[in-house]
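queue> holo job accepted (zinc ion)
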Amino acid sequence: MSSINRLALSLFSCLLVLPGALLSAPAMAQGAPAVRTGIEEVAAKAGVQALRRAATARASSRAVELLSRYVRIDTVNPPGNELRGAQFLASVLEESGINARVFESRPGRGNVYARLRGDGSRRPVILLSHIDVVPADPEQWSVPPFEAVVKDGSLYGRGVLDCKGVTTIQLLAMLALKESGTTLSRDIIFLATADEETGGRWGAAWMLDNHYDLLGDAEFVLNEGGFINRDPGKPLVFKLGVAEKSPCWFRVIATGEPGHGSRPAAETAVTRLVDALAKLTAREKKIEVGPVVAGYYAAYAALDEEHARQYRQLERSLESVEFRDWFMADPAAAALVTDTVAPTMLEGSVKTNIIPATATAQVDSRLLPGHDCVSFLSEIRQAVGGPNVRIEPILSFASTQSPMNNELTEAVERVAAAMDERSIVLPALLGGFTDSHYFREKGIHAYGMVPLETSPEERATLHGPDERVSVSSLQDAVGRMVDLLLELGG
Ligand SMILES: [Zn+2]
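queue> job finished
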């Protein structure tokens, strides 16, 4: 349904039942009378629904203006300067009567927190997003990246998908619930943080370390990491991020006798490094199909008739050499079933004619859920290490995953089922990482799910030039986020 139709419908139904809504709203606010006739009950319900539809329509209609103002606040990380973004979000919340708190984790780095109370019968859900964005090179863009230009029905700007658009959808859904006086069974916690793009140390990690009392009672987190994918010729796919691979970044350091380039020894720091990297990348990759990936492909089978049979039993299918070669030829697919190893940075001599004493490579390695960096690195050491080659960790954290069957995943299933066209939910393992892992490590089940329809072309602009979002999809997403929160805590 287009947003215009939805708006018209909301206003129409609002007019139809407005008297009931007006009567029931104050009664709701002061606590419902103990005894009510059936008719009053129905009228009150209809009234609340009408108020909510009208509030949702109003919130949706603010999406472009709000997101545009937000895009114009420069929060490129580094350095971040998220404080101004946090203050902007806090002011929007405060204008709507929701108390917001801004936390400065270090000078200029801001985080904003707000809580919309529910009746407390179920545990809160956190709507998580990040305030910082990655840099944008104006030369590569068709419009200025920080001016929020609307062109051909889309809003262009750095962050409109990652992640300022996400923040806007979450914020407006929260305002619609507040304005309509809807009380859910859960508190809704709004949390927009600094520093995600460089690891979240001054954002999500800092908030959990320093203000756990504000967050620790939550059961779920809804974060970036999964959109509704509208791909040509396919049903709508609700991509639900339930797990992320974890980084296990390391250095390979080779040493040797330094000397002049005209008199090379048989082995030098550089030749040892080259040998070690050759062994590292030639290692046979162990294939492992975890439960999330198995579930993903089993569901994906509905979208690909040609390989449906193999996808339904991915682990078995990968035993066939022919299928395995085909499957593993796609790096994105291969990354879902293996621990990946990508040498990315090399350092040796500063001069062509000097043999250095040390040569170093940095390696970006990503592990499957359940694999840990310490034992992975000891395997690597055995395979490529030696007296002159050592392996040192750079960065790692535990790979975690959220359950695939609970009230949150069921709520997403119901929202997908209520769509006007065929939709499926695909639980996904993400190759990259977001701030979700900080929450999963604390036992709070985090999911990548933003109910925003995106095309493959739009998704390709994430972190790239001409990042954009369709205006009508953005507006629709506000209503769908309200629906999702109602399913989760209605
Ligand atoms: Zn992001």
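queue> Residues 244-396 form a domain with the Alpha-Beta Plaits fold (CATH 3.30.70.360).
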